[in-house]
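Input set for joint prediction.
Command: fold jointly, output tokens.
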Amino acid sequence: MSRWGRRPQLSFPDVGSIEGPLLEVVDLHTSFRTGRGLVRAVDGVSFNLARGHTLGVVGESGSGKTVLSRSIMGLVPGTNVERSGTVRLSGHDITAMSLDELREVWGMQIALVFQDPMTALNPVVRIGRQITESLRLRAGLDRKAAYETSVALLKSVGIPAPEQRLRNYPHELSGGMRQRVMIAIALACGPKLLLADEPTTGLDVTVQAQILDLLAAQQRERHMGMILVTHDLGVVANRTDDIVVMYAGRVVEQAPTAELFARTRMPYTEALLRSIPRLAEASHTRLRAIPGRPPDLATELKGCRFAPRCPYAQDHCRKEEPPLRAAGQGHLFRCWYPVGSAEGDAALAYNVAARVPAALAFTGIPVRDAALVAPNAVGSA
Amino acid sequence: MLRFIATRLVQLVVICFLISVFAFLLVHLLPGDPTLAILGPNDTPAARAVLLHQLGLNKGLVSQYGTWIMNIFHGNLGASFLTKQTVTNALGVAVPIDLELVVVSQVLALLVAIPMALIAALRPNRLFDRIATTSTFAMLSLPTFVAGPLLVLVFAVTLKWVPATGFDRLSQGLGQNLKSVILPSVALAIGSVTVYYRLLRADLIATLQEDFVTMARSKGLSTRYILMRHVMRPSSFSLLAGAGISIGTLFTGAFVVEVLFQLPGIGYQLVQAIYSRDYLVVQGMALVAAVAFVVVNFGVDFLLTILDPRVRRA
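tokens >
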């Protein structure tokens, strides 16, 4: 019994002994009731994650990836949140749990690494207490054991002179050090699943790689499942087993990492890949940005959500949303005119001929020429 | 840290010097002739000139200030023209009253405001928050000269729980003493509760939306622990600064309450001295009140540097 309220006792069986995936997410929906209507931030997402595997969740800002990682934990704050669907951790449905039961899962089974360590660490609390508090209150260690564990943790995430760092406040450390501290905090109670929400976005490029390597090393060592949320396909390319691409709250493509890069089917994924700048290109080459922005999730959306920005889009796309279709082992995509298919090539050629701006931008023809020509009604390919 | 305190101490000394100059000049800026007030309008000009000389008021301002400040360092603030009571004696009566009024009223105000703000901030815009925000606003618009007599009417006249006026010293027993200050303290606390509640509620709501609170939740810590160990401290800066100003102002600002309850505190004696042009009393009381204000706020600044490690570098 702790001074700070009852510590819930929930027996979680040893995860290693259980068959089946570590995490199963089935038809997860998370919406926010706002003044403008219901915003569907996560809209029917399903996937599995095996023990010791890494899943990359990729999408641009506003695609729902951060809300997804929070709602997997059941950690979306506020009274205006609606969540449905099932999240099973080692077979336990954590969406059905009470707050006391969830507290037993948080930190101990699932831990979160935040995007910005400056705001996610309490500025007026020493690093030491921010690490030891969960060790003492949750793992039940005594003062001395908690201190020794936190020194070992800081050492394991590559922080020199950990004894001194424990006495520091967050503002006294550099950005990379703060992110290492955050990872140490997340790892403190030995979680089985690590959710890393854009863990490198606030950091210098050189530090980014170090942090990603650290996460990968810790994950291998502890045989954790990890979900790596990012907007950067380059980040997940060599570090994940599977990738889920999200757009406007939906999964639009999902595949094992090598398969996704080798046989991209979804035009959105293709556009994301093309938007990564390449070293081989001459400097000052124009970046291949995706024109437009994701749709307003508060409005009723008809048809494929990417259609307004898609170089392949036809009337069919604007009328009817494609279902998630299978293409080979574990490869799912949501498109009527997939990349690399005969229909897809025809649709793109048709759009270029019809001087549709998105298609011209995609092929590299300057869009200002296209603006002179009003896009005609484009028929179904 | 030590450097920071040293800098602030030097500032404190400079400010206290400036205050003493202003307190000294204040009386010379007031219209009217002190000799007229002491001797009455019917005395001869010769007698007034003699008095002026006796009081040292015929000398230059700088020399007058020098004499005054040197006497203060010797614990001598002069004496009242009217009552012949020394200012030091008058302060000996006034200061304990004000100290007790300030301490009791502010403790009461914080005891009410902090739990209210915590409950309201946890569920903003829900029932409790709406009731608390509206009722504290009503309290703010209730002036002390209305709240005071109302309290006297209910608790002293009707219920006869406490005396209506007067001050019983601590030497007359703690119960007796508290009974005599509780009504004026409540009257003073009413205004402070609103300010403290609003400052703390706003900061708490802002802090609760910080990432580090979500982070603490994601560690599986209990709501109570998070509130006490993660949220309260970074939410208390505005409250503390507000309390500093509020407490400092109360040393003289309790005037209305002191008159209502017949408590000879600093404000009460100061106003009486101004009316009777008892200029040494005015100077002494104003000096003590202003120095108290500055010292209280120095203390608050010091507490802020302890609460917020980021300030220490500044």
